[in-house]
Design a protein that fits this description.
Elements lengths: L1 H16 L9 E7 L2 E7 L11 E5 L5 E3 L2 E3 L18 E3 L6 E4 L2 E4 L2 E5 L6 H8 L3 H14 L3 H14 L1 H22 L8 H35 L8 H10 L7 H5 L9 H8 L2 H16 L9 H24 L4 H4 L12 E2 L6 E2 L13 E2 L4
Antiparallel strand pairs: 1-2, 1-3, 4-5, 5-6, 7-8, 8-9, 10-11, 10-12
Length: about 375
């Protein structure tokens, strides 16, 4: 029995480690089940351990866009600390001659521009540059709208759940049976049975493991059929992932998440929050995004074109967020209501980050004008 216990312990260790992500930059990770999701931001993204769950990694849009050009200055960032370029780079559309995706980055005219997050591919940026101005203006607005579609995300989640019902169910059976076997072996269940019963269980154990193998293969086949029906744009890496899962059974216990790789389009993180996050998380992300729109920081030394592009993007994003936040029951005045003093000496606060100050300083270290805290 000890050999079986060792195998199962290794199995569970691999299962816990599978799906952990260590991205190069802080990102949003969603581990969802049904219409809700755990929503985190950071450099360590843990998977959802439910075999019926799905997962998504989302990024802030790493650029600002307008009818006159594009800049690598992010606008309306939901993450904190927000990722910002050391130096703003901007391009007028007429100056863009070539673009390329290379090593996880987008380059314009041979110069590194921004991280490739999927919001705009290199070819799509070049396509915008080659459009006539009136067509480009409409297309830029179309892209802004595509990055803010929480209803579409919920529909995608429902479609993913429907198409992957069978592999998810088989994963649940596999996981439950493996958990029972593990508990029996680690708790020394044989000592709690009569010798005859213990011997019967020992003889049956190889057949139970064979049943697990059949569940594993059936789940993989069902997941493969689901991926054929869940088409994703660009390079589809799910077939390779399924082959890897076939060789490593712990990896095959999240087949719904595997089938959903690339299924959700790149959107603004606030759209994901409005679609799946709990109310408190929605309020937090809306506060962060609107705060970045109202009180941008780091732009003082940007070139004039970069400021023009960011200002246009900021105004358009603010306008388009209004109906979405109202539909979610989020009131901007409530989000930015002055906090009560967190100590007797606190008298002013930063509306962007809510840090409180004990002096009548006019501005915080980031240059945001301070406001008085709430009385009483």
């Amino acid at each position: 029995m000890s050999e079986w216990a060792s195998v199962l312990l290794v199995f569970w260790a691999l299962w816990l480690a599978d799906g952990v992500k260590l991205p190069a930059a802080a990102r949003f990770g969603l581990a969802g089940a049904g219409r809700s999701a755990r929503f985190v931001f950071g450099r360590l993204l843990l998977p959802g351990w439910s075999p019926t769950g799905w997962s998504v990694v989302a990024d802030d849009i790493p650029f600002a866009i307008s009818p006159v050009g594009i800049s690598n200055r992010p606008v309306g960032a939901a993450g904190r600390p927000a990722e910002a370029p050391a130096r703003a780079t901007e391009w007028a559309w007429d100056d863009i001659l070539e673009t390329e995706q290379k090593g996880g980055w987008i380059t314009i005219n041979g110069a590194r521009f921004c991280r490739d997050t999927g919001h705009l591919r290199a070819a799509q940026i070049l396509g915008l540059a080659r459009m006539p101005e009136p067509v480009r203006t409409a297309r830029v607005g179309w892209w802004l709208q595509r990055w803010l579609r929480p209803v579409h995300l919920r529909r995608r989640a429902a479609a993913l759940a429907g198409r992957t019902t069978m592999p998810a169910l088989l994963n649940v059976l596999f996981l439950a049976l493996a958990a029972v076997i593990t508990a029996y072996l680690l708790a020394d269940g044989a000592s709690r049975l009569t010798p005859k019963q213990a011997e019967s269980v020992a003889r049956a154990l190889p057949f139970v493991v064979g049943y697990l193998v059949l569940l594993h293969l059936a789940a993989l086949a069902a997941a493969w059929m689901a991926t054929r029906r869940l088409k994703v744009p660009g390079e589809d890496k799910r077939t390779i992932a399924l082959f890897s899962a076939a060789l490593l059974p712990p990896q095959a216990l999240r087949l719904r998440a595997l089938a959903g790789d690339g299924w959700f389009p790149a959107q603004h993180p606030l759209a994901f929050a409005l679609a799946f996050a709990a109310k408190r998380e929605r309020e937090e992300r809306a506060f962060q995004v609107l705060g970045d729109l109202r009180w941008p920081i780091g732009e003082a030394d940007d070139p004039p074109l970069a400021k023009t592009v960011a200002a246009w993007h900021r105004a358009e994003l603010t306008k388009r967020l209004g109906p979405l936040l109202a539909a979610a029951g989020l009131d901007e005045a409530t989000l930015f209501a002055a906090p009560r003093a967190d100590g007797p000496a606190s008298c002013r606060y930063c509306p962007r980050c809510r840090s409180q100050f004990t002096t009548e300083t006019a501005r915080c270290p980031h240059g945001v004008e301070l406001r008085p805290v709430a009385k009483g």
